[in-house]
Design brief:
312 residues, six-stranded mixed β-sheet, Rossmann fold, 15 helices, globular, single chain, alpha/beta
Length: 312
Amino acid sequence: MHSKQELKKVHQRILPYIHRTPVLQSSLVNEISETKLFFKCENFQRMGAFKMRGATNAILQLSKEQQKKGVVTHSSGNFAQALSLAAKSIGVPAYIVMPSSAPQVKKDAVKTYGGKITECPPNLKNREETAQQIIRETGASFLHPSNDTNVILGQGTAAIELLTEIEDLEFIVTPVGGGGLIAGTALAAHFFGKNCKTIGAEPFEVDDAYRSLQSGKIEINETTNTIGDGLKTQLGDKNFPIIKEHVSQIIRVEEKEIIEALRLIWERMKIIIEPSSATALAAVLREKEKFRNKKTGIIISGGNVDLKNLPF
Protein backbone atom coordinates (compact mmCIF):
# COMPACT_ATOMS: atom_id res chain seq x y z
CA MET A 1 0.00 0.00 0.00
CA HIS A 2 1.13 3.55 -0.72
CA SER A 3 1.31 6.39 1.79
CA LYS A 4 1.50 10.15 1.89
CA GLN A 5 5.07 9.85 3.23
CA GLU A 6 6.10 7.69 0.28
CA LEU A 7 4.73 10.22 -2.22
CA LYS A 8 6.49 13.08 -0.42
CA LYS A 9 9.78 11.17 -0.63
CA VAL A 10 9.32 10.61 -4.36
CA HIS A 11 8.74 14.33 -4.86
CA GLN A 12 11.84 15.27 -2.84
CA ARG A 13 13.91 12.70 -4.74
CA ILE A 14 13.14 14.04 -8.22
CA LEU A 15 13.09 17.79 -7.43
CA PRO A 16 16.73 18.42 -8.46
CA TYR A 17 16.02 16.98 -11.95
CA ILE A 18 12.64 18.48 -12.88
CA HIS A 19 10.99 21.88 -13.34
CA ARG A 20 8.31 22.96 -10.94
CA THR A 21 5.85 23.90 -13.67
CA PRO A 22 3.52 26.91 -13.47
CA VAL A 23 -0.21 26.83 -12.72
CA LEU A 24 -2.06 29.10 -15.16
CA GLN A 25 -5.57 30.48 -15.25
CA SER A 26 -7.63 32.18 -17.94
CA SER A 27 -10.64 34.29 -17.03
CA LEU A 28 -11.97 33.82 -20.55
CA VAL A 29 -11.70 30.02 -20.44
CA ASN A 30 -13.33 30.14 -16.97
CA GLU A 31 -16.20 32.13 -18.47
CA ILE A 32 -16.65 29.68 -21.35
CA SER A 33 -16.50 26.64 -19.07
CA GLU A 34 -18.56 28.33 -16.30
CA THR A 35 -16.12 27.17 -13.65
CA LYS A 36 -12.76 27.96 -12.05
CA LEU A 37 -9.96 26.11 -13.83
CA PHE A 38 -6.34 25.77 -12.74
CA PHE A 39 -4.04 24.43 -15.45
CA LYS A 40 -0.92 22.59 -14.25
CA CYS A 41 1.31 23.17 -17.25
CA GLU A 42 3.49 20.12 -17.75
CA ASN A 43 4.03 21.30 -21.34
CA PHE A 44 6.72 23.45 -19.65
CA GLN A 45 8.34 20.40 -18.05
CA ARG A 46 11.83 19.36 -19.20
CA MET A 47 11.44 17.49 -22.56
CA GLY A 48 7.94 18.95 -22.75
CA ALA A 49 5.80 16.47 -20.79
CA PHE A 50 4.95 15.08 -17.35
CA LYS A 51 6.77 11.84 -18.19
CA MET A 52 10.08 13.35 -17.10
CA ARG A 53 8.86 12.91 -13.51
CA GLY A 54 8.19 9.18 -13.65
CA ALA A 55 11.27 8.39 -15.71
CA THR A 56 13.50 10.25 -13.23
CA ASN A 57 12.01 8.53 -10.19
CA ALA A 58 12.28 5.08 -11.78
CA ILE A 59 15.97 5.54 -12.67
CA LEU A 60 16.82 6.93 -9.21
CA GLN A 61 15.23 3.87 -7.60
CA LEU A 62 17.65 1.50 -9.36
CA SER A 63 20.80 0.34 -7.57
CA LYS A 64 24.17 1.84 -8.59
CA GLU A 65 24.98 -1.50 -10.28
CA GLN A 66 21.77 -1.40 -12.31
CA GLN A 67 22.27 2.26 -13.22
CA LYS A 68 25.70 1.47 -14.62
CA LYS A 69 24.20 -1.04 -17.07
CA GLY A 70 21.58 1.42 -18.23
CA VAL A 71 17.85 1.49 -18.86
CA VAL A 72 15.74 0.37 -21.80
CA THR A 73 12.19 1.10 -22.90
CA HIS A 74 10.02 0.88 -25.99
CA SER A 75 8.13 4.04 -26.87
CA SER A 76 7.39 6.05 -29.96
CA GLY A 77 7.01 9.32 -28.18
CA ASN A 78 7.19 11.17 -24.90
CA PHE A 79 8.51 8.40 -22.68
CA ALA A 80 11.36 7.76 -25.13
CA GLN A 81 12.34 11.41 -24.76
CA ALA A 82 11.77 11.47 -21.00
CA LEU A 83 13.85 8.38 -20.30
CA SER A 84 16.67 9.63 -22.54
CA LEU A 85 16.87 13.03 -20.84
CA ALA A 86 16.40 11.69 -17.31
CA ALA A 87 19.12 9.08 -17.93
CA LYS A 88 21.45 11.74 -19.33
CA SER A 89 20.83 14.02 -16.32
CA ILE A 90 21.62 11.19 -13.89
CA GLY A 91 24.53 9.85 -15.98
CA VAL A 92 23.00 6.54 -17.06
CA PRO A 93 22.95 4.97 -20.57
CA ALA A 94 19.47 4.83 -22.19
CA TYR A 95 18.47 2.34 -24.91
CA ILE A 96 15.28 3.23 -26.72
CA VAL A 97 13.33 0.86 -28.98
CA MET A 98 11.25 2.91 -31.42
CA PRO A 99 8.89 1.76 -34.17
CA SER A 100 10.23 2.61 -37.62
CA SER A 101 7.00 4.58 -38.16
CA ALA A 102 7.70 7.03 -35.29
CA PRO A 103 7.83 10.68 -36.42
CA GLN A 104 11.34 11.83 -37.33
CA VAL A 105 10.95 14.80 -34.98
CA LYS A 106 10.59 12.36 -32.06
CA LYS A 107 13.59 10.28 -33.16
CA ASP A 108 15.65 13.47 -33.43
CA ALA A 109 14.60 14.56 -29.94
CA VAL A 110 15.61 11.20 -28.44
CA LYS A 111 19.02 11.50 -30.10
CA THR A 112 19.46 15.06 -28.82
CA TYR A 113 18.84 13.79 -25.29
CA GLY A 114 21.46 11.08 -25.72
CA GLY A 115 19.20 8.02 -26.12
CA LYS A 116 20.55 5.14 -28.24
CA ILE A 117 17.79 4.21 -30.69
CA THR A 118 17.09 0.74 -32.07
CA GLU A 119 14.34 0.75 -34.68
CA CYS A 120 11.90 -2.13 -35.15
CA PRO A 121 8.73 -2.91 -37.14
CA PRO A 122 5.75 -0.99 -35.72
CA ASN A 123 3.94 -3.57 -33.60
CA LEU A 124 4.03 -4.46 -29.92
CA LYS A 125 5.47 -7.95 -30.41
CA ASN A 126 8.52 -6.58 -32.24
CA ARG A 127 8.94 -3.77 -29.73
CA GLU A 128 8.98 -6.22 -26.83
CA GLU A 129 11.31 -8.70 -28.55
CA THR A 130 13.78 -5.97 -29.50
CA ALA A 131 13.79 -4.65 -25.92
CA GLN A 132 14.43 -8.18 -24.58
CA GLN A 133 17.36 -8.57 -26.95
CA ILE A 134 18.94 -5.33 -25.67
CA ILE A 135 18.45 -6.52 -22.08
CA ARG A 136 20.25 -9.78 -22.91
CA GLU A 137 23.14 -7.92 -24.55
CA THR A 138 23.60 -5.07 -22.05
CA GLY A 139 21.97 -6.14 -18.79
CA ALA A 140 19.98 -2.89 -18.86
CA SER A 141 16.83 -2.58 -16.70
CA PHE A 142 13.49 -2.39 -18.51
CA LEU A 143 11.26 0.54 -17.55
CA HIS A 144 7.66 0.59 -18.76
CA PRO A 145 6.24 4.01 -19.75
CA SER A 146 3.09 3.69 -17.61
CA ASN A 147 2.86 0.30 -15.90
CA ASP A 148 5.69 0.61 -13.39
CA THR A 149 5.08 1.57 -9.76
CA ASN A 150 8.03 4.00 -9.55
CA VAL A 151 6.93 5.65 -12.81
CA ILE A 152 3.33 5.97 -11.54
CA LEU A 153 4.45 7.56 -8.25
CA GLY A 154 6.69 9.99 -10.14
CA GLN A 155 3.82 11.06 -12.40
CA GLY A 156 1.73 11.82 -9.32
CA THR A 157 4.10 14.61 -8.27
CA ALA A 158 2.55 17.06 -10.75
CA ALA A 159 -0.73 16.78 -8.85
CA ILE A 160 1.07 17.08 -5.49
CA GLU A 161 2.47 20.45 -6.63
CA LEU A 162 -0.93 21.55 -7.92
CA LEU A 163 -2.73 20.57 -4.70
CA THR A 164 -0.17 22.32 -2.47
CA GLU A 165 -0.35 25.49 -4.58
CA ILE A 166 -4.15 25.64 -5.06
CA GLU A 167 -6.04 24.63 -1.96
CA ASP A 168 -9.50 23.06 -1.87
CA LEU A 169 -9.57 21.73 -5.42
CA GLU A 170 -12.75 19.69 -5.87
CA PHE A 171 -11.70 17.89 -9.05
CA ILE A 172 -8.51 17.08 -10.94
CA VAL A 173 -8.96 16.06 -14.56
CA THR A 174 -6.24 14.27 -16.54
CA PRO A 175 -6.07 12.59 -19.93
CA VAL A 176 -5.93 8.77 -19.88
CA GLY A 177 -3.55 6.82 -22.13
CA GLY A 178 -1.48 4.08 -20.54
CA GLY A 179 -2.83 5.01 -17.12
CA GLY A 180 0.37 6.14 -15.38
CA LEU A 181 -0.60 9.81 -15.08
CA ILE A 182 -4.15 9.25 -13.87
CA ALA A 183 -3.10 6.56 -11.38
CA GLY A 184 -0.37 8.78 -9.90
CA THR A 185 -2.72 11.79 -9.88
CA ALA A 186 -5.45 9.78 -8.13
CA LEU A 187 -3.00 8.74 -5.37
CA ALA A 188 -1.87 12.36 -4.96
CA ALA A 189 -5.49 13.58 -4.78
CA HIS A 190 -6.29 10.86 -2.23
CA PHE A 191 -3.38 11.77 0.07
CA PHE A 192 -2.96 15.51 -0.51
CA GLY A 193 -6.45 16.68 -1.47
CA LYS A 194 -9.49 17.39 0.68
CA ASN A 195 -12.25 15.28 -0.87
CA CYS A 196 -10.72 15.98 -4.28
CA LYS A 197 -12.04 13.63 -6.97
CA THR A 198 -9.88 12.43 -9.87
CA ILE A 199 -11.58 12.27 -13.26
CA GLY A 200 -10.15 10.88 -16.48
CA ALA A 201 -10.72 12.21 -19.99
CA GLU A 202 -10.55 9.84 -22.92
CA PRO A 203 -11.45 9.95 -26.63
CA PHE A 204 -14.45 7.84 -27.70
CA GLU A 205 -12.10 6.42 -30.34
CA VAL A 206 -9.84 4.84 -27.67
CA ASP A 207 -12.12 4.37 -24.68
CA ASP A 208 -10.45 1.30 -23.19
CA ALA A 209 -10.15 2.83 -19.70
CA TYR A 210 -13.84 3.79 -19.66
CA ARG A 211 -14.78 0.22 -20.62
CA SER A 212 -12.26 -1.28 -18.21
CA LEU A 213 -13.85 0.54 -15.27
CA GLN A 214 -17.24 -0.77 -16.33
CA SER A 215 -16.20 -4.40 -16.83
CA GLY A 216 -13.70 -4.53 -13.96
CA LYS A 217 -10.96 -5.95 -16.19
CA ILE A 218 -8.43 -4.41 -18.60
CA GLU A 219 -10.07 -3.89 -22.00
CA ILE A 220 -8.24 -3.22 -25.24
CA ASN A 221 -8.93 -0.95 -28.21
CA GLU A 222 -9.78 -2.34 -31.61
CA THR A 223 -9.05 0.99 -33.31
CA THR A 224 -6.75 3.88 -32.44
CA ASN A 225 -8.19 6.50 -34.73
CA THR A 226 -7.68 9.58 -32.55
CA ILE A 227 -5.81 12.86 -32.83
CA GLY A 228 -4.63 12.25 -29.24
CA ASP A 229 -1.57 10.27 -30.27
CA GLY A 230 -0.39 9.92 -26.67
CA LEU A 231 -3.61 8.14 -25.65
CA LYS A 232 -3.45 5.04 -27.83
CA THR A 233 -1.82 2.77 -25.25
CA GLN A 234 -3.76 0.68 -22.77
CA LEU A 235 -3.89 0.26 -19.00
CA GLY A 236 -1.62 -2.16 -17.15
CA ASP A 237 -1.87 -4.45 -14.13
CA LYS A 238 0.06 -2.01 -11.90
CA ASN A 239 -2.00 1.10 -12.59
CA PHE A 240 -5.46 -0.42 -13.14
CA PRO A 241 -6.04 -1.41 -9.47
CA ILE A 242 -5.20 2.17 -8.39
CA ILE A 243 -7.54 3.58 -11.06
CA LYS A 244 -10.34 1.20 -9.98
CA GLU A 245 -9.98 2.27 -6.37
CA HIS A 246 -9.37 6.02 -6.66
CA VAL A 247 -10.72 7.37 -9.98
CA SER A 248 -14.34 8.46 -9.71
CA GLN A 249 -15.24 8.69 -13.40
CA ILE A 250 -13.94 8.71 -16.96
CA ILE A 251 -15.54 11.16 -19.38
CA ARG A 252 -15.33 10.36 -23.08
CA VAL A 253 -15.01 13.10 -25.69
CA GLU A 254 -15.39 13.35 -29.45
CA GLU A 255 -12.53 14.21 -31.79
CA LYS A 256 -14.09 17.55 -32.71
CA GLU A 257 -14.38 18.43 -29.01
CA ILE A 258 -10.67 17.70 -28.52
CA ILE A 259 -9.80 19.95 -31.47
CA GLU A 260 -12.04 22.76 -30.15
CA ALA A 261 -10.43 22.57 -26.70
CA LEU A 262 -6.97 22.49 -28.29
CA ARG A 263 -7.76 25.58 -30.30
CA LEU A 264 -9.20 27.38 -27.28
CA ILE A 265 -6.01 26.86 -25.24
CA TRP A 266 -3.70 27.84 -28.12
CA GLU A 267 -5.72 30.95 -28.97
CA ARG A 268 -6.78 32.16 -25.53
CA MET A 269 -3.98 31.04 -23.24
CA LYS A 270 -1.20 31.47 -25.81
CA ILE A 271 0.46 28.20 -24.85
CA ILE A 272 1.34 25.25 -27.04
CA ILE A 273 -0.13 21.97 -25.88
CA GLU A 274 -0.46 18.63 -27.64
CA PRO A 275 -3.87 17.24 -28.66
CA SER A 276 -3.78 14.51 -25.98
CA SER A 277 -3.66 17.26 -23.32
CA ALA A 278 -6.74 19.00 -24.70
CA THR A 279 -8.98 16.02 -23.87
CA ALA A 280 -9.08 17.12 -20.21
CA LEU A 281 -10.51 20.56 -21.03
CA ALA A 282 -12.81 18.94 -23.62
CA ALA A 283 -14.24 16.74 -20.84
CA VAL A 284 -14.96 19.75 -18.62
CA LEU A 285 -16.66 21.59 -21.49
CA ARG A 286 -18.71 18.51 -22.36
CA GLU A 287 -20.03 18.06 -18.81
CA LYS A 288 -20.40 21.68 -17.71
CA GLU A 289 -23.13 20.84 -15.19
CA LYS A 290 -20.80 18.60 -13.21
CA PHE A 291 -18.02 21.19 -12.93
CA ARG A 292 -20.08 24.38 -12.72
CA ASN A 293 -18.54 26.76 -10.15
CA LYS A 294 -16.28 24.05 -8.77
CA LYS A 295 -12.54 24.57 -8.34
CA THR A 296 -11.07 22.19 -10.91
CA GLY A 297 -7.46 21.36 -11.66
CA ILE A 298 -6.45 20.24 -15.14
CA ILE A 299 -3.15 18.52 -15.80
CA ILE A 300 -1.84 19.71 -19.16
CA SER A 301 0.14 16.58 -19.88
CA GLY A 302 2.52 17.87 -22.55
CA GLY A 303 3.36 20.16 -25.43
CA ASN A 304 5.22 17.98 -27.91
CA VAL A 305 3.33 18.81 -31.06
CA ASP A 306 4.09 17.82 -34.61
CA LEU A 307 3.70 21.29 -36.13
CA LYS A 308 3.39 19.86 -39.64
CA ASN A 309 0.32 17.94 -38.57
CA LEU A 310 -2.01 20.41 -36.85
CA PRO A 311 -5.80 19.99 -37.07
CA PHE A 312 -6.43 23.71 -37.71
